[in-house]
């Protein structure tokens, strides 16, 4: 099957178009730098045929400066090892910014391949007054022009049909554009030519968006913009706690009911212990946080899609620049709030290796969604649910402060790295601000479905498997007949926990936390299911087993221990997948191990300080 | 009977974790290199091919 590549500037809607053509569900975002890898899919058009479509990272020119731009360059020129060069190109242009987009389209003509031009976001451009003579534009460029609205799928069939024609030997020659070889080489000549093309084809220019400028006047203001950002974040974290309370209670009730029913059905025995104390307690302990995960991502996706996140990046550039971080680091750091893995991969948009390494090493400090179940559990157990200021709850504020503390720590660590390991000049940020848009509900709901699906899949696979293994380790070998201690003390897990205890006792953790630490290295949220399993297996009566994990922890742990574990999770590098990705992206185990060591040391130090200070203040 | 079911579930979970951790890929790589050194080219490539097609990059949320 023949291959067509989508190429264009960042944030012109290539991935949205790719999704529309192939029915794919790749992440789209209203900011540049979302796609950093090649993505492939198949586009079908009824019975007329199929083509393979390649989505490439956005680039402003064919002279690559960053690793993601290199991917685009190498694929288009057929230089990427093991990668076939595309037979034809779909150049994607942002109709609201034709001047910039067409410069790259002209550059693409030097590939001497059939090209069609997808003029994306036409609805937005027309709404802002653009009147375009498409025939004149086609004539000037020597290529077919197809107006598209990728988010609604408009222009999809036309685009696939033209792509099929481009790839057929009969029509192929009609898609070879004009020869722009002079303009492709010289940037001044290129933009002069773009000017001529636009003069011939534009009947009415896109009007400046007055509303957008007024909004930017406030949200990009150093003081008012920072205030807006703080208020937005406070509201998000408050909503994550308050709005999720009822569905969380429903799920908790459902898990407890399921445990009782399954227990009654299975009767007493080892199988009941595995299913009720192991699987239902462990997996259920994590699944109850699904509403909070969904709410957090709902807000993140809404803010991303509206175009606000890129403004937040601009606002943060002042702060990030002061510690020596590249402004482009904002997007990787922002992505790391979902998961450090896409965050680390998103650093490919940073051209300088020193800046890129600094960003990779601090990205896992951002609060990923796997930490949310741990935070929620400990906050609900140890922080009183009371209102403190203008109706804002203390629990929501503590959650916000954990996120802020992680950001501040990441900046401080970056500051140290930039002045020791990766010395260099402060880079300048050039970031294109996307147009404000009403978020597309389809895109937001798709994003939410994907996030919720991944969370549930993870709970049903990795977390379930770890829970089963942990139950086994906590239940075997059985206690002797004349045992004086709880049965778990005689188990493998109990022995491992007791062996680790001397290491973690100075920071306030006992052997039970030690048991939960080990599987917690596979993924952070597994800590919750592991604690649920350990306490359920240890539970002496049914009442204790039926108690929610939060209540159990509040009853068994001191405030100092709870806060110390919270502190540990802000900084601890407990995620093997992240370490694997850091190794892959840096091409060396050296940096992955360095990250593991420095983050563990910081986490231990912070936990120690928090534990000791809380005890000194009477919280022991 | 219950004990047997429980052991089967535990073994299944262990195998799933092994697959997820991609430990089998590392073992296959080491194994195929070991076979290559001993001149067992055919078996070395068979072992590598068996797992290579199933390799995935690590993912998270």
Explain what you see.
The complex is a heterodimer of chains A (620) and B (61). Chain A is of the alpha/beta class and 620 residues long. Chain A has helices spanning 14-22, 67-76, 98-108, 122-127, 134-141, 156-167, 181-185, 187-201, 210-219, 224-242, 245-266, 270-287, 290-306, 308-322, 330-335, 340-346, 353-362, 371-382, 394-419, 441-475, 492-504, 511-520, 526-538, 542-546, 549-556, 559-571, 576-586, 589-616; strands at residues 3-8, 39-45, 49-55, 88-94, 115-120, 131-132, 144-147, 202-204, 387-389, 392-393. In chain A, 60% of the residues lie in helices and 8% in strands. In chain A, strand 2 (39-45) and strand 3 form a beta hairpin. The relative contact order of chain A is 0.09. The mean pLDDT of chain A is 85. Chain B is mainly alpha-helical. In chain B, 75% of the residues lie in helices and 0% in strands. In chain B, helix 2 runs antiparallel to helix 3. Chain B starts with a helix and ends in a 9-residue tail after the last helix. Classes of the chains: A alpha/beta (620), B mainly alpha (61). The interface between A and B is medium-sized, with 32 and 18 residues.
**What's the overall average pLDDT of chain B, rounded?**
79
The termini of chain A sit apart by 68 Å
Please give the largest β-sheet of chain A: 6 strands, mixed
Our Rg estimate of chain A from Cα atoms comes to 28 Å
Instruction: Please state roughly what percent of the residues of chain A sit in beta strands, choosing from under 5%, 5-15%, 15-25%, 25-35%, 35-45% or over 45%.
Output: 5-15%
What structural category do the secondary elements of chain B indicate? mainly alpha
Q: Give the topology string of chain B: H per helix, E per strand.
A: HHH
Shape of chain A: elongated
Oligomeric state of the chains?
heterodimer
Q: How many DSSP H or I helices of chain B? A: 3
Helix content of chain B: over 70%
Q: Any idea what the shape of chain B is?
A: elongated
Q: DSSP helix count of chain A?
A: 28
**Approximately what portion of the residues of chain B adopt beta-strand conformation?**
under 5%
| Interface with most residues | A-B, 32 and 18 residues
Helix content of chain A: 55-70%
